[in-house]
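Archive entry: two folds, one per protein. Generate the first.
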Amino acid sequence: MRTLPFTALAEGSAGLARRVSYAGDSRLSSSDAQLARFARDALIEEARLTPKPALVDARGSGAHSDLDLATMLRSAHALEPTFEALARASRGAAPGTALRTDLARIGRAGEAAMMRATQGSNAHRGAIWIVGLLVAGAAIVHTPQSSDSECAHAAHICETAAQIARFDDLLAQPAQSNGERVRQRYNVGGARSEAQEGFPHVVRVGLPALHAARAQGYEEAHARVDALLAIMASLDDTCVLHRAGLAGREAARTGAQRVRDAGGVATQAGRAAFDALERALLALNASPGGAADLLAATLFIDRLVQHRMGGRTVSWNN
């Protein structure tokens, strides 16, 4: 796989859950359409970020035989109306069974729209769940309080989304997905637990890594790849487990950590470690798609919170 230049362009959340909505400055709130644009853009930015190990990017299809960058971009654009519908359904609502069931119905319609746009390829099924719940949480937690830091506001959105995820979808059919089979076989939580636990790989891993890399002066693309690698290094990625089992999980985790230990992909040693990670994943036909979805979620929350804080910046490590 040839190498191209980059083209990308902590605290737990449970203790930060407060009331469902804020009475903050309405100028810092986000409309349903704006939330949908932020979500769409997060999917686009994740897809375009290059290089990513064994994932679709500007170099090619990675470990995927049925996806390429153009397909990923069509999927992202096709999902914008779904994200807007999720925000609209959540505005003024409270987490509960009725909302959870309504959001699931919208999500299933969005999945059908995605499949039409991609001619049957699963580009963003996981992201519809992960990013879609965060859109719903952001519509409920619509403005920050004056005392909020970026970290506190992000964690509140994630915890509100988690509250929704903990309720049952009354119209759900028995799940026979690859993710469900992996969860049962390997006893891992997967995307469902990630959401129900308050998106720890967004709040405690992705966002801190992204902001730490920026603080060190990394280019934005380098910072985003570093955030992806941080997520990969600790995630039980059901996409990897489905394709390559425990050997794939070990390759993804240890390989990602080696890149970070070597100074990240901005360094010569880090890029050599990245290339080794990618070779190992491609040999196993393993794609870290779950980590990619969580990077998109990280980028969504990062963009949203920066917009809402109106320029107020507080360290994510506070």
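Generate the second and append.
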Amino acid sequence: MNTIKVLDKEFKLYIKQEEIETVIKDIANQINEEYKDRSPLFLVMLNGAFMFASQLFKELTIDCETSFVKYASYDGTQRTCEVKELIGLKSSLEGRDVVIIEDIIDSGYTMKCIIQKLKDMKVSSVKIATMLFKPNAFKFDYKIDYIGFNIDNEFIVGYGLDYNEHGRNYGSIYKVVE
């Protein structure tokens, strides 16, 4: 499909599913190499990263564990570094290697808070894998270790990304038509 309609907006094809899966395989190969003698814990950020994580895990050959977390860094309309665990971890992470799996990083604010939270939990290391990164919107200087695609400041849906909770189910990524 070259165009789709999600709720009241029209979107056009931006990144094909085949391209996404090729890039995810490349990220998995990097992770397989870097963690071949270790057993990291992957923290999958809900809701958007579930499709990225699913494809990534099909390509991983290393010993690992997976947990799903959901955080919010807003209180009403105010942003705070008090990230709220909407769905959280049940066990200690002290001494663990952690890889955060995220669908998209734009300003980077929520991720900054999560990194600090993990450091406070005394993890051994933290790395970040994101399917999409908006470098022009990024406000911080922490390292993002695995990036699928650098994109402009586009409003996108598909492959787990949503518009008002709709459109996550598309295999490709689409950008809004202005």
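Annotation attached to the second fold: The longest helix spans residues 17-34. The first strand starts at residue 3 and ends at 6.
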